[in-house]
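Margin note: ligand = pyridoxal-5'-phosphate.
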Amino acid sequence: MNLSDLAPEYIRAISPYQPGKPISELAREMGMDERTIIKLASNENPLGTSPLALEAMTRALNEVALYPDGSGFELKAALSKRYGVTSSQIVLGNGSNDVLELAARVFLKPGASAVYSQHAFAVYPLVTQAVGASGIAVRAIKYGHDLDAMLDAVTPETRIVFIANPNNPTGTLLAASALLRFLERVSSDVLVVLDEAYNEYLPGTIKADSIAWLKRFPNLLITRTFSKAYGMAGIRVGFGLAHPDVSGLMNRVRQPFNVNSVALAGAVAALEDVEFVKRTYALNQAGMLQITTGLRQLGIEYIPSYGNFLSFRLSQHDVRAINESLLRQGVIVRPIGIYEMPEHLRVTVGLESENQKFLKSLEIAIGESA
Ligand SMILES: *Cc1c(COP(=O)(O)O)cnc(C)c1O
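Resulting structure:
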């Protein structure tokens, strides 16, 4: 008997998520000193973690013998205050990935479908397939979501539309007005999951007031994370905001203790750390300018990005060879062939010195491949 035959066909068909290569793995593979390697592959915060969060988490470590507060009372209270929603509208997750999965488990099943964009975040097809539903990938325009086409792709069986804004790995942003028009037109029996993992990196002037839309659209779920701007990717905490009927169902299917106590304490403190988010934002703006300027000098085409990362195109070069040269030089970026972007690499905006090393190494890599 082949054990994998016991799993449903839709589970066997899943291709695993490919994370960014850890520094320790590259060091092992190449016999390099970890300290000479920089990782710009997973959109992590180059400033590390919010110091307030770090302090709170260190304190919380003393109590890990106890189960976490399964209701996340304090974090929900802090989020309610910050975002002007009720606690009953909040779903906490073990990263926002968990929230995306909960949405799929609640609203999808075999026979149902989810709509998402080509080049969109890889987790959407994953969570869709994992519950036996079918995914409908809609062709992108200029690497961004084509909302009109996504609306047309919705069928009577569609229960979720996933929208990443900004999107990863393309960094594209939809205008607030376009999103609003989409929400007004899409059938109210379709849950619109608006993934705003990079919200904190947007200038205030172009940020959609998406949370205010929750009052008008009971079929809207907004997801946010502490992984990116708050620098807490390793501790896993994110959240969803929705109509209480939606969050209520999601809270029923989640694990009772899905967010650990250290993460809960850290997230409460992180929300207070306005200063850290400000510094993160400013560093990202400067780093984005540094990288785009450098790429332009190298004659490399890139997709303008609204996140803390950027995808650039190496159409004249062998992407694999360039990536391998970067790795040999101790620079980890992300190949995005699985996003149907085989000619692109994605780089996370790092510290000034890291961006510098990346640009220099890329120049060398291109020289080698010419
Ligand atoms: C990084 C990212 C997330 C956040 O994942 P977590 O599970 O919260 O760490 C969600 N959506 C997108 C588009 C992302 O790039």
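The two ends are 51 Å apart (CA to CA).
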